[in-house]
């Protein structure tokens, strides 16, 4: 669990730091200029981080499933080697999926408008500015995202269904409450990540002419800003050992001073 939390924290830092500083600069100073290379670098890190986070949420759901449904086999199933392989596979998957997309889009000619109607370099918004047909890159984005997110969401849902079945079979009410509270928090974060993210993708693909632009921008921003904000609270403060360390920090500072 701590390995997954560590990777998740690193991914959230990359995701937030790729978007929020530039977004704040736009809101505060109105300066929305960004270089061509910086735009594609931002796009690469943002979309790679979202692909990696999707896999991490699946891995964490599997971790909770094993911990609650097969607690006696936990150490045998999730060995350090298995956890390392899972993390490496998730990171490589995000990088390998995003690299061809960035290459395809960066090699398109851009000779018209240079205004991206978003608060960051979102793929579909940048593709619309190309003078050539961006359909191949857009189609690749739609298919690859559906292939990654679809099975992940299905397996996450299956994991939590099995978890709920196991929880309701517990005889202890306190154990049921603890498990439901933990899983409920996790599910809430996943909904806030997947729902705006997938809505943003399909709206940009199918409903770009019917959905107002500010709604499209809001959806694209929500899944990048809200999860990195809530994840430290949900996965950090709710973890007993981390919570105790945080509560003891003021006392440590007081003793040092």
From TrEMBL:
For the keyword Transmembrane, the answer is yes
The record's listing under InterPro entries reads: GPCR_Rhodpsn, GPCR_Rhodpsn_7TM, Olfact_rcpt, OR51/52/56-like
By what name is this protein known? Olfactory receptor
Give UniProt keywords alphabetically.
Cell membrane, G-protein coupled receptor, Membrane, Olfaction, Receptor, Sensory transduction, Signal, Transducer, Transmembrane, Transmembrane helix
- Membrane-crossing ranges are 40-62, 82-105, 142-168, 180-205, 217-237
Keyword Acetylation assigned: no
- Compartment(s): Cell membrane
Domain G-protein coupled receptors family 1 profile: residue ranges: 1-235
Q: What domain of life does the native source organism fall in? A: Eukaryota
GO cellular component, alphabetical, reads: plasma membrane
Family, according to the entry, reads as follows: Belongs to the G-protein coupled receptor 1 family.
Membrane topology designation: Multi-pass membrane protein
The record's gene field reads: LOC100720113
- Endpoints of the signal sequence: 1-16
**One MF annotation (Gene Ontology) recorded for this entry:** G protein-coupled receptor activity
Species whose genome carries this gene: Cavia porcellus (Guinea pig)
């Amino acid at each position: 669990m701590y390995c997954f939390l560590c990777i998740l924290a690193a991914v959230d830092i990359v995701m937030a730091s790729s978007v929020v500083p530039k977004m704040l600069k736009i809101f505060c100073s109105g300066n929305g200029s960004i270089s061509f290379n910086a735009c594609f670098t931002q796009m690469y890190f943002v979309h790679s981080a979202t692909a990696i986070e999707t896999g991490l949420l699946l891995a964490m759901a599997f971790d909770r499933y094993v911990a609650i449904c097969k607690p006696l086999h936990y150490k045998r199933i999730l060995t350090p080697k298995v956890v390392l392989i899972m993390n490496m596979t998730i990171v490589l998957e995000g990088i390998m999926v995003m690299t061809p997309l960035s290459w395809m889009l960066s090699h398109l000619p851009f000779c018209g408008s240079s205004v991206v109607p978003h608060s960051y370099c979102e793929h579909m918004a940048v593709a619309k500015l190309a003078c050539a047909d961006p359909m191949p890159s857009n189609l690749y984005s739609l298919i690859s995202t559906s292939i990654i997110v679809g099975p992940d969401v299905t397996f996450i849902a299956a994991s939590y269904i099995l978890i709920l079945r196991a929880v309701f079979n517990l005889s202890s009410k306190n154990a049921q409450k603890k498990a439901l509270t933990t899983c409920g928090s996790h599910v809430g974060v996943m909904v806030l990540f997947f729902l705006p993210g997938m809505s943003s993708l399909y709206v940009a693909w199918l409903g770009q002419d019917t959905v107002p632009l500010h709604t499209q921008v809001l959806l694209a921003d929500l899944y990048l800003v809200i999860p990195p904000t809530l994840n430290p609270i949900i996965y950090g403060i709710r973890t007993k050992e981390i919570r105790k360390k945080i509560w003891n920090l003021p006392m440590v500072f007081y003793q040092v001073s």
